[in-house]
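Retry 2 of 3 after timeout on previous attempt. Resubmitting structure tokens to design endpoint.
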């Protein structure tokens, strides 16, 4: 491989895998994507991106940035364009629908900047050239060569593939991570339940406006309360209101193999029975049967390294987080930007297998602290929203201060600096 562009296998074609593939192809690096499903696909729910992730898209590829803006939706009111969320008192039982007390507002340069997941993925798929994606390829395990040979991927259908290096973008239940840690029974191989779950729904905007009022329907709102919180934001260029209703629980999730299950709406009413009329009205708008998502993460046993030889984990595979910062997918895009920039360094191809190992080692060293902090900070943030955080409880001033500080740590990070630091560390190993 020396002096030639390496051949990279990406396992998984979610947001991480596709963004990484596009970023690498743009840099002239050969890529194959192995996806277990029969086609690329995402669920029909909203996902919000902070300014750090939008900047990282630009670094990955200006085409990704453009594609994102084609499908992204911001708050609909011009004077709320920079609002991340208005944080409302969901327990305000005296206020009529749509008139809950505003507790505080967090702002950032683009405010809530959200996409319908499936629409964003469709845009990304358009940027992947033919011949790159291979479907119905569920990775079972990986074999490393003795020396400089190819890394082997073994799939569930009995087929194999080879590559100079493998990047596992295979999500929260990553096989790549389990292989790297030494087996399914090793701590960290499986994600853990955070004892929160979420109901999700999409409401036609006109209905939401009619029932909740224009401000509540068209701009991002977070309704806080004891042991639960509900967030809403517009997607589909303002045609749809996305709803996610989180609740804490003491009970175990019934089956860790299935992270979603269908639930009747009566459970949502029961969970949020102590919330005020606005939250009750949001629940009224949801479908009678809903998907309920268990919130798992990798926070109990963070990986000590994201790399092993010429194999590396990236995105949720490396650091799956609960979604309370609205930053999990965004941090995957930062990962992809750093990885693509490292692998494109001329010294990597020149140094052959040693170059790939070095790039993966530096990726791991540079990304671990920020990504694993996010996992822990997201747990804390979920508890802040639900008045369960130790030392804070229902103290609105303290909730505001802590949320602001934590969110700004995510949003203010500059991808150019993250990339520059990583490249400098790589040059120190490989020689400039
Ligand atoms: P995934 O999306 O899980 O993709 C993994 C891919 O790998 C899939 O296509 C899968 O089929 C494939 N795969 C898995 N195993 C194998 C295998 N063995 N072989 C081959 N292919 C395989 N993030 C935000 O930034 N903002 C938000 O607002 C936000 N909201 C969220 C709300 C909820 C309720 C949840 C649960 C998460 C939220 N997130 C949010 C987090 C975000 O969804 C994830 O961080 C992101 O989707 C992870 O992308 P990924 O590509 O790494 O993993």
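Retry 2 succeeded. Sequence:
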């Amino acid at each position: 491989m020396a002096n030639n562009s390496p051949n990279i296998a990406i396992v998984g074609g979610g947001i991480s895998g596709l963004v990484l593939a596009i970023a690498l192809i743009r840099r002239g690096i050969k890529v194959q994507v192995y996806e277990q499903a029969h086609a690329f696909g995402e669920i029909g729910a909203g996902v919000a991106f902070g300014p750090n992730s939008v900047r990282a898209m630009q670094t990955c590829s200006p085409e990704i940035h453009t594609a994102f803006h084609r499908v992204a939706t911001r708050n609909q009111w011009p004077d709320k364009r920079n609002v991340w969320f208005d944080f409302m008192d969901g327990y305000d039982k005296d206020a009529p629908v749509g008139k809950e007390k505003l507790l505080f507002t967090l702002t950032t340069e683009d405010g809530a900047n959200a996409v319908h997941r499936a629409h964003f993925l469709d845009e990304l798929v358009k940027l992947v050239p033919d011949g790159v994606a291979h479907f119905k390829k569920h990775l079972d395990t990986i074999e490393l060569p003795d020396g400089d040979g190819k890394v082997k991927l073994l799939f569930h259908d009995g087929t194999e593939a080879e590559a100079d290096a493998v990047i596992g973008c295979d999500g929260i239940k990553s096989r790549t991570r389990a292989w790297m840690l030494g087996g399914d029974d090793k701590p960290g191989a499986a994600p853990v339940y955070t004892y929160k779950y979420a109901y999700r729904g999409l409401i036609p905007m006109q209905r939401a406006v009619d029932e909740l009022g224009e401000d509540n329907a068209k701009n991002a709102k977070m309704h806080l309360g004891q042991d639960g919180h509900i967030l809403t934001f517009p997607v589909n260029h303002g045609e749809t209101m996305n709803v996610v209703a989180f609740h804490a629980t003491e009970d175990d999730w019934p089956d860790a193999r299935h992270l979603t299950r269908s639930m009747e709406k009566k459970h949502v009413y029961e969970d949020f029975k102590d919330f005020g009329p606005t939250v009750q009205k949001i629940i009224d708008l949801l479908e009678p049967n809903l998907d309920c998502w268990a919130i798992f993460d990798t926070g109990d046993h963070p990986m000590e390294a994201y790399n092993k030889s010429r194999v590396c984990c990236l995105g949720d595979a490396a650091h799956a987080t609960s979604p309370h910062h609205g930053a999990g997918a965004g941090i995957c895009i930062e990962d992809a930007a750093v990885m693509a920039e490292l692998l494109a360094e001329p010294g990597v191809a020149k140094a052959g297998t040693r170059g790939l190992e070095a790039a993966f080692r530096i990726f791991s060293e540079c990304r671990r602290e920020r990504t694993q902090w996010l996992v822990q900070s997201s747990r804390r943030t979920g508890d802040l929203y639900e008045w369960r955080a130790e030392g804070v409880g229902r103290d609105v001033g303290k909730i505001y201060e802590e949320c602001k500080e934590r969110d700004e740590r995510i949003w203010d990070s500059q991808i150019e600096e993250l990339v520059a630091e990583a490249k400098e560390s790589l040059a120190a190993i490989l020689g400039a």
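Attempt log closed. Residues 11-17, 34-37, 47-49, 137-139, 169-172, 175, 198, 244, 293, 315-316, 323, 326-330, 332 surround flavin-adenine dinucleotide (CB under 6 Å).
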